[in-house]
Design a protein that fits this description.
Layout: H1 16-27, H2 34-54, H3 58-70, E1 76-77, E2 84-85, H4 87-99, H5 115-129, H6 133-153, E3 155-156, E4 161-162, H7 163-166, H8 171-187, H9 192-203, H10 212-215, H11 220-239, H12 255-260, H13 267-270, H14 294-306, E5 313-320, H15 325-328, H16 332-336, H17 341-345, H18 348-357, H19 377-384, E6 386-390, H20 392-397, E7 404-410, E8 415-420, H21 433-448, H22 450-462, H23 469-474
Parallel strand pairs: 5-6
Antiparallel strand pairs: 1-2, 3-4, 5-7, 7-8
């Protein structure tokens, strides 16, 4: 980490926001690398599926109701609806939907969820600006890259931790507002200077306090929606004449001073920008739960495959990285008896039970976190005999992966162990195209029907070829009311 003593403009060098604006402007004027374009299409499909699936939540209903009561010009779709709403409000609703199931993608080691802010912002801006699919893909790619790089600027390699999180900030929404603003500015036809101003304006709108992860509340589900709303609003305000400070990121009173107290790594933003893309390496989530719990599910499943009978287990020791214990294992009494779906998504003992008892979809699906299962006697018994501890091997690997080592004892005195040291969905263990499609279908078929789900898959594949973003969103109409979950 470093603290810059002087602003780059004092030496005549481009500011960080100017470097990012130049990168974004260049990106839209040349073809994307094939692997980047393919990755962006996959992320669009993933986000669309998440938004449809999340319509069943009470917080989603609240966000949609809030948007509808605001009124305004019809510019963009809330995903699943026929009518259009103002673009910033569409971005708000869709960002809430994309993040609410804890099923959205993750960049490591920054622990950002980039697509849940950037894709909703880009879709809304593309509709409002009449952009085609090729421009949408380029804007999402650039926005994701900017989001991740600003996140990595606040990653402390000495402690393997995000400085944003240590300060109580939700890096996802802070960085997502800026990444989304870059994407929105590109799609609203702002020039290179305009993109820089959108960065400058969005930085004043970036927000998100992460205390809900510790003590509850549903506000975290709002964070990506507010970031996407800020992103589109910033780009629109710049189009009408607002400007931002050129040193908004590194300046004495800039973004990094405000959120990181001046401790950041500028090289994470500038090194090989436009050459070394982070986008294809962002992890897809195979399971609808906090990412720290995924390898616990996998280790539980491995124990079952080894022949462990869940009914015979008398103790479970869940080993995770030291910094993860507080999220998935404390307070242990609450983690052993989650009372809501949201609490189950952050419970190490519940994740182990899902793996041991056999999950849906790719190994754990939305059905496995249904509120009705929280009182299932088999799950309650397994969770009651579980503890969550720091494991030295897992701690050494973290945060480049979120590993887990699960040990169990059975009534016959036998000891069992399973390790899951690499997360599914990332470069070391990627999901196949078929698995990504399975996740999408699992998320949408009940609401859209088989035919419409297939049409959306085919539509996403045509983005950048012969299908426009507004035509894609016209394909998504929720036919069956979702079941509300708490």
């Amino acid at each position: 980490m470093s603290e810059l003593a002087s602003e780059p403009t004092s030496q005549g060098a481009p500011t960080l926001s100017a470097r990012l604006a130049r990168f974004a402007d260049t990106t839209r004027h040349k073809p994307l690398p094939a692997e980047v374009a393919a990755s962006v299409r996959d992320r669009v499909l993933d986000v669309l599926g998440l938004c449809v699936a999340a319509r069943r939540l009470d917080t989603s209903a609240a966000a949609v109701a809030y948007v509808r009561e605001q009124g305004g010009a019809g510019q963009a779709h809330m995903i699943g609806d026929a009518e259009r709403v103002p673009a910033p409000l569409a971005a708000l609703a869709n960002g809430v939907l994309a993040h609410s199931l804890d099923y959205d993608d993750t960049h490591l080691p920054s622990v950002l969820h980039p697509s849940a802010s950037v894709v909703p912002a880009a879709l809304a801006a593309a509709e409002a600006g009449g952009a085609d699919g090729e421009r949408l893909l380029a804007a999402i790619a650039a926005g994701l890259e900017v989001c991740v790089r600003i996140g990595m600027a606040g990653y402390d390699r000495d402690t393997n931790n995000s400085v944003y999180f240590e300060h109580g900030q939700h890096a996802t929404s802070l960085c997502g507002a800026i990444g989304g603003a870059v994407a929105a500015a590109m799609l609203l036809d702002l020039d290179e200077a305009g993109i820089g101003h959108a960065i400058g304006v969005s930085a004043s709108m970036a927000s998100g306090v992460i205390e809900a992860n510790r003590t509850g509340g549903t506000v975290k589900r709002l964070h990506c929606g507010w970031a996407a709303h800020s992103a589109v609003s910033a780009a629109q305000l710049v189009r009408h004449g607002f400007t931002g400070p050129p040193t908004v990121l590194e300046g004495r009173f800039g973004f990094f001073e405000a959120f990181l107290r001046g401790a950041y790594d500028p090289r994470a933003i500038t090194d090989r920008l436009g050459e070394d893309w982070a986008v294809p390496g962002i992890f897809f989530k195979p399971y609808p739960a906090n990412h720290f719990t995924h390898t616990i599910v996998d280790a539980g499943r491995s124990l079952r495959e080894q022949g462990v009978d869940p009914d015979e287990i008398v103790s479970l020791t869940i080993g995770v990285p030291g910094p993860v214990v507080r999220t998935v294992g404390e307070p242990i009494e609450r983690k052993r008896r989650p009372t809501t779906t949201y609490e189950a998504q952050f419970s190490g003992p519940y994740a182990a039970a899902v793996g041991l008892l056999g999950g849906q979809g790719l190994g754990a699906g939305l059905a496995d976190y249904d509120a009705a299962l929280l009182t299932d006697p088999s799950r309650l018994r397994l969770m009651a005999c579980a503890e969550v501890v720091a494991d030295a091997e897992c701690t050494r690997i973290f945060p480049n992966q979120f590993p887990a080592v699960v040990r169990s004892s059975t009534r016959d005195g036998r000891e069992w162990m399973a390790k899951a040291l690499v997360n599914r969905g990332g470069p070391g263990n990627p999901l196949t195209p078929e698995e990504l499609a399975t996740k999408f279908r699992d998320n949408v078929v009940d609401a859209l029907g088989v035919g419409a789900a297939r049409a959306v898959e085919e539509g996403v594949a045509r983005l950048g070829r012969d299908l426009r973003p507004d035509e894609l969103l016209d394909l998504i109409r929720i036919q069956v009311p979702g079941k509300e979950v708490q």
